[in-house]
Amino acid sequence: MLFRSLALLAVASLSPGCGSDNTEKDTSSSDTDTDTDTDTDTDTDTDTDTDTDTDTDTDTSVWTDSASGLTWQDPYLSETMMLPVAIAYCEDLVLDGHDDWRLPTVGEARSLLRGCAATELGGACTVDDQGGCVEVGPGSCYSQTCYDGCAEGEGPAPEGFYWPSELHGTLLGGLYGFWTSTAVADAQSGQWYVQYYQATVDSFNPGNGDMMTRCVRGTRL
User: Fold this and answer.
1) What is the pLDDT of residue 58?
2) For residues 75 and 212, what is the distance between their CA atoms, to the nearest angstrom?
3) Assigned domain for 1 exists
4) Comparing 48 with 219, which gets the higher pLDDT?
5) Are 40 and 83 members of one domain?
6) What pLDDT does 117 receive?
7) Could you tell me if residue 213 is inside a domain?
8) CA 181 – CA 87 distance, rounded (Å)
9) Higher confidence at residue 42 or residue 215?
10) Strand arrangement of the beta sheet that strand 62-64 belongs to
11) In a designed cystine with 107, which of 5, 73, 128, 208 is the match (CB 3.0 to 4.6 A)?
12) Over the stretch 123-139, which tens digit does the pLDDT of each residue have?
């Protein structure tokens, strides 16, 4: 089984002085000092900062694809993981007020592809769990077109990814494929993945290594 080699890239306090003279002054004018400290020690700034940070985190944690109606985790977790860990991670994820996240199917993962007609959903590569096939043997829907994808790093999104420009990506995500929940139907051990730096659709023995994970929620395609 063809598989593109993957590489992993790894990424005084100051204390105010206090003298005996100052202590005497503070004691003799205790009313004035106490009033000043009380007025100054307010938490207005802390409350405002907390509200602002929470709103920002919520707004940037997900992205909804208007073409498919699916909502995607964005940015994705910037580390690789084995398939069973990836499945559990998505199922346990609570994000943007929702807990129904899951690992995408191969068709859903392909629905994110942009700028590579051959491997976009509905293209010449017909690997798809809905309306296509998920076999890799002779005479199946899997072909060299699926594996070749398009020119590396020339997608329409920042960093050259073949996904919507609104999504975020890192170099690590370019070097690795992204897991799907779809198993290869005619192989004893194989799982479909999509690699977005070259728009590749291929399969991999999940016992042989890690890949990236981006969770999804919404009505299955």
Assistant:
1) 37
2) 12
3) no
4) 219
5) no
6) 98
7) yes
8) 8
9) 215
10) 62-64, 71-73, 216-217
11) 128
12) 999 999 987 789 998 88
User: For residue range 76-112, what is the model confidence (pLDDT) as tens digits?
Assistant: 988 999 999 999 999 999 999 999 999 999 999 999 9
Q: Which amino acid is at 51?
A: D
Q: Note the pTM of the prediction, 2 decimals.
A: 0.72
Pair 76, 24 in one domain: no
**HEC profile for the chain?**
CCCCCCCCCCCCCCCCCCCHHHHHHHHHCHHHHHHHHHHHCCCHHHHHHHHHHHHHHHHCCEEECCCCCCEEECCCCCCCECHHHHHHHHHHCCECCECCCECCCHHHHHCCCCCCCCCCCCCCCCECCCCCECCCCCCCCCCHHHHHCCCCCCCCCHHHCCCCCCCCCCHHHHHCCEEEEEECCCCCCCEEEEECCCCEEEEECHHHCCEECCCEECCCC
Q: What is the pLDDT of residues 46-85, one digit of tens each?
A: 444 433 333 333 335 999 999 999 999 999 988 999 999 9
Positive or negative, the CA dihedral 176, 180, 183, 184 is negative
* Percent of the chain surpassing pLDDT 90: 61
What's the domain range around 42? 20-53
Residue 71 makes CB contacts below 8 A (sequence gap 6+) with 62, 63, 64, 65, 96, 216, 217, 218
The two structure tokens encoding residue 203: 């399969």
Task: Identify whether 11 is part of a domain.
Answer: no
Does 6 reside within a domain?
A: no
Q: What number of other Cβ atoms are within 10 A of residue 138's Cβ?
A: 7
